[in-house]
Amino acid sequence: MAKTRSSQLQQIETRSLRDRVLDALREAILNGDFKPGEALREIELSESLGVSRAPIREALQILSSEGLVEVVPYHGATVRQLTLTDIKELYSLRSVLETFAIRQIIAQGTPEPSERLNACFHEMLAATETNDLKRMNQLDRDFHTTLIDLSGHSLLHQTWNVVSMRVRQAMSLLNRNTRDLKQVAYNHLPIVQAIQANDEAEAVRLIEAHVADSSRLVVEGWKTLETTSQPL
Questions:
Q1: Which of 148, 155, 209, 220 can pair with 160 through a Cys bridge, CB separation 3.0 to 4.6 Å?
Q2: Are residues 57 and 104 in the same domain?
Q3: CB neighbour list of residue 206: distance below 8 Å, 6 or more residues apart
Q4: For residue 38, with 0-12 CB atoms within 10 Å meaning exposed, 13-18 middle and 19 or more buried, which class applies?
Q5: Is residue 205 part of a domain?
């Protein structure tokens, strides 16, 4: 056991400084600590993280390729703006990706998908007992990422990584504390049951309705932010 633990620690220690800086900046953007339109100044970031400007610059270039940051030569970097159109496009594409994943899963005809998704559902249900919003949000994302993973489609997974990051960023900028966490968990159960029954039409209908409902809530919240002139 000690050897395994040592091996895990070594893996963490040997990660490049750039990768650690990249993770820190990405998480700050996705969590809403850095708001859309906010300037990301290399000097300030290097001082805050206690590193040189080189890994900061490299990390910002990667974040730019991921669509989270805009880098303008000689003007610096800013967190990419999000518009209402961006939000609507994100969720419309998310619906397409998840319905495709479900069709792929059901075509496989194996019990593993329903077992793994059911396990995700029960983890979500357990998180509601402690009213752990942060944990619940993570498990909610895990459920949908698992859906994509189970499709066995590598290009779909790559596309999903980009879309899911932007969805997470949008959600982090809205107040989600009013959600009924137990209801959120149970909203996923019919999807699992339809996949378990190999009912493609019903599973697709449910995931489309699920994503449409999420989109409606986010769009309504975004309109409120714009109306109250809060920074996006």
A1: 148
A2: no
A3: 190, 191, 194
A4: middle
A5: yes
Terminal-to-terminal C-alpha distance of the chain: 47
DSSP code at position 81: P
pLDDT tens-digit map of 123-146: 999 999 998 888 888 999 999 999
Give the domain range for residue 181.
Answer: 84-227
- 200-217: average pLDDT: 95
pLDDT digits (tens, 9 = 90+) for 149-201: 999 999 999 999 989 998 888 887 765 555 788 999 999 999 999 999 999 99
- Provide the 8-state DSSP code for 72: E
217 with 102, same domain: the answer is: yes
Which candidate, 53, 78, 55, places its Cα nearest to that of 67?
A: 78
